[in-house]
Amino acid sequence: MKPIAKSSKLASVSYDIRGPVLDKARQMEEEGQKIIKLNIGNTAVFGLTPPDEIVQDMIRNLGDAGGYTDSKGLFAPRKAVVHYMQQKGVKGVTVDDVYLGNGASELIQMSINALVNDGDEILIPAPDFPLYTAVVGLSGGRPVHYLCDEGAGWLPDLADIESKITPRTRGIMVCNPNNPTGALYPNDLLLGIIELARKHQLVVFADEIYDKTLYDGNTHTAMASLADDVLFITFNGLSKNYRSCGYRAGWMVVSGEKRHARDYIEGLNMLASLRLCSNTPGQLAIQTALGGYQSIDDLVAPTGRLARQRDLAYELLMQIPGVSVVKPKAALYMFPRLDPKMYPIADDQQFAYELLADEKVLIVQGTGFNWPEHDHFRLVFLPNVDDLREAIGRIERFLAGYRRRHSS
């Protein structure tokens, strides 16, 4: 593996999908209009709150949370992350390899800032989690999108990935389970991506924030458990599996081939020190969360709330003429397709704007996730079944009107 140089680039980033649609939503709310928000996986607003044992443990320890911690974080939660990685089959991880952050998002930004120099390229899935593309650009790099194939259950195509590797390619981002599609990658695909990383000496960035939000008995494989001769940077946190978005408690783990990454790791340490530390109360939740009762298992069970809402959203969407969707195996999202013959949408942001204005339902247009066509949108299936039925009913009504207006 080629030596990895650290970058002096520093940037802050907001990955919220901004623009006229959100501006319109804010205006409508200021006017007292009630909007059904299917645009963001903010669990708390849908009554999905953190486990009580996490809350109580934070409260008990809050009196000792007023000071800075080590720049990488407190020892006990970092040790808990080490144990968790061991449970996932990742070998050779020590406490020194674990960085705690203000959510996984901060750590994704940090890891890209430390690696990317001007003109460097990072491979990113399309559709993507918009943060990936944003931080690569803000770091002076060039995001290069590899396409995930809807016809193959939104799995990436290895040939497409390899065709986009150049001498400037430095790493590949893998989001598994996937946001926005809900795809879950099989081991043979993960091994294929690892082989490309090995062949072309790439860093593998593995975003596994939804690794417990799995349906239908599916299981997740930590990518870093499949090889030890490639450098892996794994991200995870409490936001989704533990419904703790606002705690901003995430972690990053460096594993695999580290011998040629000393400069890069030095850069990570420097950036961790520059922000002093992540918030201490959030750190205090990690050990209890990882070691406690995993209530997410109840939510994703066949009769659990999240599984029932996923099934209902899928059923209702598939009943709408011209709408198709790959049923998610994981995560909290769907990425439906609108048949272009029935819905000749030239501007999907305008489509989302009109849906909001007419039906008071907020979704995110597909191009907001760097999908190249205007034929998709993302929705979250977090609302309870009554609200979800109402929201998708409004989408169906809007689409029926769209078909009438655009029929030949």
From TrEMBL:
CDD domains: AAT_like (cd00609). InterPro entries: Ala_Aminotransferase, Aminotransferase_I/II_large, PyrdxlP-dep_Trfase, PyrdxlP-dep_Trfase_major, PyrdxlP-dep_Trfase_small. The keyword Zinc-finger does not apply. Keywords: Aminotransferase, Pyridoxal phosphate, Transferase. GO terms for molecular function: transaminase activity. Residues 34-395 form the Aminotransferase class I/classII large domain. It is an enzyme of class 2 (transferase). Its cofactor is pyridoxal 5'-phosphate. The keyword Oxidoreductase does not apply. Pfam families: Aminotran_1_2 (PF00155). Its EC number is 2.6.1.2. Gene3D superfamilies: Aspartate Aminotransferase, domain 1, Type I PLP-dependent aspartate aminotransferase-like (Major domain). Belongs to the class-I pyridoxal-phosphate-dependent aminotransferase family. This is alanine transaminase. It comes from Pelomonas cellulosilytica.
